[in-house]
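Hey L., structure's done. Input below.
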Amino acid sequence: MGSNLTPPQLRRGGLNGGDNPGLSQPPWWRNRLLIPWLVQALVGFVLLLLVAFLLGNLVRNLTAAGLLLSWRWLGQPAGFDIAESVLPFQAEMPYWRGLLAGLGNTLRAVSCGLIGATVVGTLAGMANFSSNGLLRRLVRVYVELVRNIPLLLQLVFWYFVVFLSLPNGLAALQGPGVVLAKSGLYLAGFHNGLHWVGPQLVNDVWQAPLRLSVEFCALLVGLVVYSGAYIAEVVRGGIASVPAGQWEAASSLGLGWLASIRHVVIPQALPVIVPGLNTQYISLAKNSSLAVAVGYADLYAVAETTLNQTGRAVEVIILLLGTYLVLDLLISALMNALNQFVRIKER
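Output:
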């Protein structure tokens, strides 16, 4: 029986180092708290060395070519015009004004595209749950067709096949307060802030208070149709995440399909929808740089012309990268704030 007794020091963990503080400290290469920090420090050091090497190589090459970074060219006259600009611009103005005008055009296309794509995508996503079978099939065809064709080809289609094929003059497509012609989209508006004036044909040329070029229209339609298909899938997934019992509860209260999806389903689906919208909004902002394919003078198009005239490739690329980075980060910050706002609070 004596052999079955357990010594007190074994029960206290004496042989495992419980009574000897020196044995409780493992070697540094087995320290689970220290090793991750050492690995991260080593990786960070290697990355810094790589960045320093690349920057040093860039500076040496630029010095050898006589092209050290300089921003003085921004104050020189641009020497080119911008056909369509939200901000006033002339050829005598400096390059920075031209780039600013291009940025204004980009923000105009992105903001209009975000609104239009959100409306189209939300309606298409809701239509997936309609009781109308034909409508559901049409939405699926739209989503699958658009998502599997590159955006560049779609922009070329809208510009060359659709808008440039429109008639001009009296043969243009006319509606109440709107005219769609080969020369652009003409909308009614206030003239001199007092009188409401619609599109008018003067000397076989349409004139209106508000005119949108066919380049801008092709870009906008392409972005809205393309991004709307992806947003439709985001909305469909968000609505599908709502339990079926919520639909039944809304129906038991006498709510119709539209009232149920508006007042019951969508508010619960927003926490699932908003993160997906964040990604699609950022993609739309980046895809707007394809405006050069349809001749719209956005930031990228103006920067490309500036690069060709000045030869300052590095500086122009830095400006482009920084601008699109700030724009995407701003969209992400706004959507993250919206995500926090619509998140369902647990009680």
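Residues 95-127 form the longest helix (33 residues). The chain is about 60% helix and 5% strand.

-- N.
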